[in-house]
Amino acid sequence: MPKGYAEGPAADEAERRAEEAERAVPRAYEHELEWPAVYGSTEDDPERHFLGWVGDVDPDQLFASGEAWGITVVRTRVAGS
Question: Confidence band (pLDDT; 50, 70, 90) for 68?
Answer without folding.
Answer: very high
